[in-house]
Amino acid sequence: MKRRDFLKYGAAGLATAGAGLSPFESLAQTLTGTTDIKLGITDVETRLVDGNKVNMLGFRLYGGAGALATGRVPGPVLRVKEGSSVKITVTNDREEAHGFEITGVPGTKTEIAPGSSSTISFTAPVAGTYIYHDSLGDTPLYRILGLHGVLVVEPLNGVTSAGSRTPYSLDKLVPGSRTAVSALFDALGTTDRFQGGADGKWVPAPLNAEASIREKVWICAAIDPKFNALIERGKPIASSPNLTSNVVDNFVPSYFTINNRSGYDLHDDYDGMLPVIVKNYIGEPTLFRIVNVGLAHHANHFHGNHLMELARVDLNPKSSTYGQMIVPENIFEVDTTAMWPMQRRDLLLPLEIPPDIPYQIPVSSPTGGQFQRMVNKQAQEPFPLRYVMHCHTEMSQTAAGGNYPQGMVCHWEVLGGLGGRAKVAG
Amino acid sequence: MTSTTKTAGATAAIGGTLAAGEAATQTMPPLGPNSTAVPGPGDYNGGSIDFTRTGVKGKESFGNFGCDTFDGNPNTPDWTTANAYFVRTVQNVDVTMPDGKKLRCWGFGDPLKAPGRELLPSPLIRVQEGDLVHVKLQSSKGTHTIHHHGIEPTTFNDGVGHVSFEVKDDYVYQFQARHAGTFFYHCHKNTVTHFEMGLYGLLIVDPKPENGRVPAYAGGPFYDVEKFWVLDDMDPRWHQITNLDHDVGLCGDDAGLNIFEPKYFLISGTPTRPNVLVDKQKIVAKPGQKILIRLLNASYSVLQVMFEGLEVQVISVDGHALNKPWNQWLTIAPGTPFTLPTAQRYDILIDTGSPANQTKTGYTHKVHFEFQHWITRKVHNAGDKMYEGRAFTTITI
């Protein structure tokens, strides 16, 4: 495999990202105060981490900016308020029929003939993370070719009795879940472990943004180029019943992505991309909304902090709550989380001081900890601390059959100690 | 190895206050109860570090992301004295598989405590909550690292090459164990192959003793019988190509590492065909006793687990006890299957005297494992007597 330089994104893009301007402002404005969303289905070309290119199908956002206007994989992150009326019109620019569905939301399934449009209207469901995708013919084919995105529903009553904001409508949870969610979000900023006072609380992303400092959306997927080879711009998708009659059994992916990037292409975020990397200070808890639209069973492992497993979908067909979103009464703290196909999980990265950095030095008669020495610039090891996140089902760490770790791996950063952002801002 | 092999002596430490001489004069504290060796002169690893030769300050590029990643033998930043000290080497270990073939695996060796003991899984690292731990890796067969999975130290001690460095000859990893629970350690170099080869072992952090006994975690339950169940699957093709080329696939060749077809299935390092149980796999307990199982999925399969006959309780997940205000023990009814993704740990308590279990004494109960394909979820090689991805062990009360 040829190696390549990372030249795709120019200095202009870097400058924008570095200045902290939101590349999503224009999208944001189109979504403000409206629940009338217009999407298109179109061709997208993706350059993989090794320089090879594949054809994909993507959603574009009418009124969006940059890649969102022309078509992007994944589709735009849509945010709506629970209980609001939502209208989504999907226009199909391709030469074959497509579908649209928001899994777990009744009345959202539709079909769109080539060159035409279809509109769905629904009431925004209970707060949580949803997947919209093309499920035409009940096959994952179009989903794995790129027609997927995330809908976030914000809660109406997400604030605990102690005043902490959460991602869930607390009045709609069973008492045990309400107690657990409240206990966790109330603990943020108020304990030795989760410091920061009022600034140490979780803050939701604005309704008009795809992501924020304390909230990221990760869409895990995998690419098997022989399926992408069926796509030709301007022509109906090639017929290959041998391949498409059983997509799962024929799927041998060789690229593994988050937000359609992998390996070195995930080492930082640039303008026009759905951001992935968390760069925060201690005491800035961050929510990940992670979904898996691919067909591989992933085991996402975070270094640096354990995460709290919030909502998930019950994917056990034998369960009485099969298909439902579960906000658990029992919130596990994990370093590895099961991301099975079509799983949607919310996980809280607490941004606590990585717990195993020596905290009592010397151990015989402690006088201090290393992290504080780092904050005081008295330590050798500098900030930022960079911790990887990767799938531990390690086949997903490859690209084109090798090239570890150019697969589903990224990282997150601890920029500094408590209150660091305020200090930097001066 | 001594500090004479260290790099970057001429470069000033960045922000360093622990100059080499200062650190060297620190006195060694008393040895922790679970350490395998007294820290000695070989443990000293302080001094200056050139972070620009590592992923910390080095310029990241496509080339050094995996193929030509940072390597060296740096000093340990902010080195301080430890009270638990371990050494790990890299060894060959050949395992005879049920079809009579020998499979080349790699394991971490322990030259200090018990050379020659079993290497698959690699020797246990067991420390006590609060221990300041040093693990010295002595690489061979090219570079390696150790990532202490679930332990959360600084980046330099986390064992990931492209954000820090891979170890050419030796390095002393440093961390202080905060949470009592079940962790593991593994090589994080070309992890897709090195983890598959067997470069992993359990890491257990015990809480401090309470009234002379050690519970599962501080304030947690005491247990009478402890067992480690580490589940693994092996694809012989992977072992062949990795043994030939320790860097297989790294710099661009298609080694087929996106395709994993395991033929051998192991419980705690012993193959499960024929399913004749050895002592380290099966549990024998007396009525009324409490059993603690530390379960790790070290395979590349979706692992389905099912306890026949017994009610079990998950008391800790990934080394974090279920004793927080937002969680509690999870009770799993007899015969209910559950799944574990790769690398997850469950600490499972079985109270043989509980109302649900006390009528189950005098029996042997099976525990079933299914290794399911990471895409299709089908059991590997279903129906094949030699290579089927099913296994069991037993609990006798």
From TrEMBL, chain A:
Taxonomic source organism: Microvirga aerilata
Pfam families reported in the protein's UniProt record: Cu-oxidase_3
Superkingdom, natural source: Bacteria
InterPro entries attached to this UniProt entry: Cu-oxidase-like_N, Cu-oxidase_fam, Cupredoxin, TAT_signal, TAT_signal_bac_arc
PROSITE patterns per the UniProt record, alphabetical: TAT
Protein's UniProt name: Multicopper oxidase domain-containing protein
Sample GO molecular function, one term: copper ion binding
Key words of the record: Copper, Metal-binding, Oxidoreductase
Residues of the Plastocyanin-like domain: 70-155
Automatic annotation (TrEMBL), chain B:
S-adenosyl-L-methionine keyword on record: no
Superkingdom in the source lineage: Bacteria
Keyword set includes Oxidoreductase: yes
Residues of the Plastocyanin-like domain: 120-209, 260-352
Name assigned to this protein: Multicopper oxidase domain-containing protein
Region (Disordered): 24-49
Keywords assigned by UniProt, alphabetized: Copper, Metal-binding, Oxidoreductase
GO MF term list: copper ion binding; oxidoreductase activity
Lineage of the species this protein comes from: Bacteria, Pseudomonadati, Pseudomonadota, Alphaproteobacteria, Hyphomicrobiales
